[in-house]
Backbone:
């Protein structure tokens, strides 16, 4: 069936694709501005890595007052502790309903309708077949930059050799003794009877007790004292956009879970009676497309703590955390520290395409810069800023490219977001920005 003959299942002011951390915040922010908003999600629940991905703790830092603060309060998040995924599966859709967001679950973005370089609808696959969801402004929070890609926006993939960070399946062990060890993979003080835990993991990867590319088993404390989240599996040299390679990786990572579980039961006191309580529903992808925008965040921006006049996410702070694309450990030997930096509005605007913003890990940045801003606590403020921008575009009739960053900034500050502390430029806003 031709795209223009497909049934229309809804028409909205703002359509957000992807209900992960960025997408939830984009939809909440837009809807709370009084514009009719839809949120499209391919799985049967919202949350992305907050729920289906089993990712925790919620990492990364930004300035105060963002929607991330609100969500972490609603989820009763404790710093450095993995939140309750099951409660998040319940609480996040409640938040969306309270804010009037129309939610489309089990709905996969398959294509876009556009005229020239302007989108008018998403083509989606539903249980009843293909359909369209119309919109005036769109926000791509798919993680893979799917909407922008389908619309024809330019993108980059991986580092210079086109390899990306490995994907992983997170899993939770139950039945762990409350005082059993946990180790985030960077703490050499944690020991087991065999010796330093990090060294034991490395040796086990060499002698076959662990997969050869799993040289670090990161163990995190969960909200329940008898549970631990394990971040260890990894699929190296995998094209994260190839359905065949991802399918194989999903299978291989399940086998890695069993191997890692057996290893922990044998070497880690307190794990002898543990069991695999749950695991992520799908492979967690650290890196795939990075959409090329009006500005690309550079390595030196992150390393030197650059500030921008069009800042929409302030005081971003997380390591340059590049998991080795070809083996175990870190690509650079160790995760590199950064100076708190800004993410500017023009990183969200894809080149060549109108009425579209991108938020989350697919924004415009280099491979190394991306390794810092890709985590959930940074993606949430990105989504909030993009949702505010999309709503302003609807209200003013402007395109994201022509919308003044100062308008987005003013609304964020009115909502309590700190955008200007400890920097040279400051409120009031310059309408020329």
Residues:
């Amino acid at each position: 069936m031709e795209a223009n003959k497909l049934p229309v299942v809804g028409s909205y002011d703002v359509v957000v694709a992807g209900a992960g951390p960025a997408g939830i915040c984009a939809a909440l922010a837009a809807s709370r501005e009084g514009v009719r908003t839809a949120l499209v999600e391919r799985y049967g629940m919202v949350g992305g890595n907050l729920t289906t991905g089993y990712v925790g703790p919620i990492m990364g830092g930004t300035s105060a007052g963002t929607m991330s603060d609100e969500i972490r309060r609603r989820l009763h998040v404790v710093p450095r502790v993995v939140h309750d995924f099951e409660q998040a599966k319940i609480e996040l859709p409640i938040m969306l309903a309270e804010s009037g967001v129309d939610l489309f679950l089990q709905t996969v973005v398959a294509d876009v309708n556009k005229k020239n370089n302007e989108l008018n609808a998403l083509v989606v696959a539903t249980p009843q077949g293909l359909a369209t969801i119309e919109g005036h402004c769109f926000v791509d929070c798919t993680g893979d930059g799917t909407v922008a890609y389908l619309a024809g926006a330019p993108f980059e993939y991986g580092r210079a050799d086109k390899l990306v960070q490995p994907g992983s399946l997170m899993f939770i062990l139950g039945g762990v003794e409350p005082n059993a060890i946990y180790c985030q993979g960077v703490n050499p003080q944690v020991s087991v009877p065999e010796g330093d835990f990090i060294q034991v993991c490395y040796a086990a990867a060499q002698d076959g007790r662990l997969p050869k590319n799993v040289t670090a088993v990161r163990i995190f404390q969960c909200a329940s004292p008898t549970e631990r989240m394990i971040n260890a599996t990894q699929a190296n040299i995998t094209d994260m956009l190839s359905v065949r390679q991802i399918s194989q990786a999903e299978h291989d990572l399940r086998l890695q879970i069993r191997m890692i579980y057996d290893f922990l039961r044998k070497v880690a006191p307190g794990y002898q009676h543990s069991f695999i309580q749950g695991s992520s529903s799908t492979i967690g992808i650290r890196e795939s497309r990075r959409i090329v925008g009006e500005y690309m965040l550079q390595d030196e921006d992150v390393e030197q703590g650059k500030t921008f006049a069009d800042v929409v996410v302030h005081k971003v702070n997380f390591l340059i955390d590049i998991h080795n694309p070809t083996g175990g450990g870190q690509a650079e030997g160790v995760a590199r520290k950064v100076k708190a930096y800004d993410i500017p509005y023009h990183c969200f605007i894809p080149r060549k395409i109108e009425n579209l913003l991108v938020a989350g890990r697919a924004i415009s940045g280099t491979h190394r810069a991306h390794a810092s801003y890709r985590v959930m606590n940074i993606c949430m403020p990105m989504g909030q800023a993009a949702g505010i921008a999309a709503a302003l575009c609807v209200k003013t009739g402007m395109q994201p490219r022509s919308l003044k960053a100062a308008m987005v900034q003013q609304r964020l500050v009115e909502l309590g977001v700190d955008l200007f502390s400890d920097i040279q430029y400051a409120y009031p806003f310059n309408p020329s920005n």
